[in-house]
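Saturday, quiet lab. Running sequence design on the structure tokens for the scaffold JK sent over.
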């Protein structure tokens, strides 16, 4: 089996696997609706707390189809015996059942998390994220799948795009995968296929805001005549900003890269590279998310060569868990080992579902 066929088979299996996980997770039973919210206007909600994102608490109600978003600042009290992962503005992570009250001294509301035999108290305004967690694997899995297509009769051109993502969240570490695939084909020109798989794992350190991360990237790009580029490595990162509407972190480290070109006569090209990366996530409205990520790979074995990978996108929620996704990517190589195209870029629009 050729490298190209093997790459295509594995990428298809990965995309199918993530889609299968999404369908399987959708049929899992929900937590009991026994959590209690008391709003500042006196209303009381008995619900299932799902997550806190960008200043809004997602809750499920037995008498409502779908998820209801509640403004975090409008909640006076909260009470739950279920397990959650809670993150504050400094990046500290707490795990346990949660409740809230007001300090008797100044009346400032705070959240109480019971972690084993100890109790942690943090100001309610400092809480940036809340996630469900359990000992079972499937209840900690989150992700999304999206597809898009286009056809033009004049030149018989077809375009297809698909993406999938999955993340597994635990108290002090997380793992994620992102897969993107685009295909362009017509009778008047050769087809163009691009598939990009990113894997990452992050472990928070005892020192707040710092983490170690391992990354893996597998890229197939007909435009750059790449049968497969494998990048493996990791480094040390720091969370510079973590608020209810903004999250920003940087990462530095080193990677090893192995490349196989369709036009190359020698089997492979190996190189050692540095890694400098950053990612910004920004939330403008309760239905819109924006992100931009960029990574530079200066070569240590081939001085003067530098690679650059960039991704940006906007995700707009139409209804519960159904969204429109607009993304743009760019790959640049200043000195490719063969006389191939230095850059590849493109955009995609798709309809997706998150779980």
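Result came back. Writing it out in full:
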């Amino acid at each position: 089996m050729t490298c190209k066929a093997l790459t295509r088979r594995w990428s298809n299996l990965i995309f199918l696997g993530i889609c299968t996980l999404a369908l399987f997770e959708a049929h899992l039973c929900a937590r009991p609706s026994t959590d209690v919210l008391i709003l500042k206007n006196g209303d009381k909600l008995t619900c299932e707390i799902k997550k806190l994102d960008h200043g809004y608490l997602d809750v499920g109600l037995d008498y409502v189809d779908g998820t209801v978003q509640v403004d975090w600042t409008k909640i006076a009290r909260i009470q739950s015996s279920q397990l959650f992962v809670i993150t504050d503005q400094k990046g500290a992570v707490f795990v346990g059942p949660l409740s809230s009250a007001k300090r008797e001294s100044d009346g400032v509301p705070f959240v109480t998390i019971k972690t084993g035999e100890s109790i942690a108290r943090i100001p309610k305004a400092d809480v940036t994220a809340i996630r469900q967690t359990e000992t079972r694997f499937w209840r900690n899995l989150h992700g999304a799948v999206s597809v898009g297509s286009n056809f033009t009769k004049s030149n018989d051109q077809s375009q297809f795009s698909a993406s999938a993502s999955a993340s597994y969240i635990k108290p002090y570490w997380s793992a994620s995968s992102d897969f993107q695939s685009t295909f362009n084909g017509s009778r008047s020109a050769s087809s163009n296929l691009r598939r990009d798989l990113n894997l990452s794992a992050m472990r928070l350190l005892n020192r707040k805001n710092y983490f170690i991360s391992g990354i893996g990237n597998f890229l197939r790009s007909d435009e750059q005549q790449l049968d497969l580029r494998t990048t493996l490595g990791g480094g040390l990162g720091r969370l510079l900003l973590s608020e209810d509407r903004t999250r920003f972190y940087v990462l530095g480290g080193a990677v090893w890269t192995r490349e196989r070109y369709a036009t190359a006569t020698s089997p492979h090209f190996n190189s050692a590279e540095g890694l400098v990366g950053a990612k910004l996530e920004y939330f403008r409205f309760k239905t819109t998310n924006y992100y931009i990520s960029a990574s530079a790979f200066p070569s240590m074995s081939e001085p003067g060569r530098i690679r650059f990978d960039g991704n940006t996108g906007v995700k707009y929620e139409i209804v519960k868990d159904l969204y429109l996704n607009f993304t743009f990517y760019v790959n640049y190589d200043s000195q490719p080992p063969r006389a191939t195209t230095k850059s590849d870029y493109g955009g995609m629009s798709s309809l997706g579902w998150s779980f």
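Notes for JK: Confidence is low (pLDDT under 50) at residues 1-7, 25-29. Residues 3-26 form the longest helix (24 residues). Ask whether to fix the surface positions before the next round.
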